[in-house]
Specification:
71 residues; 0% strand; mainly alpha
Length: 71
Amino acid sequence: SVAANPEAFAALSPTERIVTDLILQGFTFGEIADQLDMKENAQRFHRKNIYSKLGIHSRKELFALAGATQT
């Protein structure tokens, strides 16, 4: 989770951290949009920013960075 590796995720905004935690909990992108009451395009925008800020390109890399196991 983001909390398990705070240094790696320090550049993320509060919303980006929430989206990241939901991704790491195994939620789909559509479920994240529903959970946060946002359009999928908004969620996609946050995900793009998360990946860019962390220097990654995929969910798999996000799980590796967080030290989590992808579900």
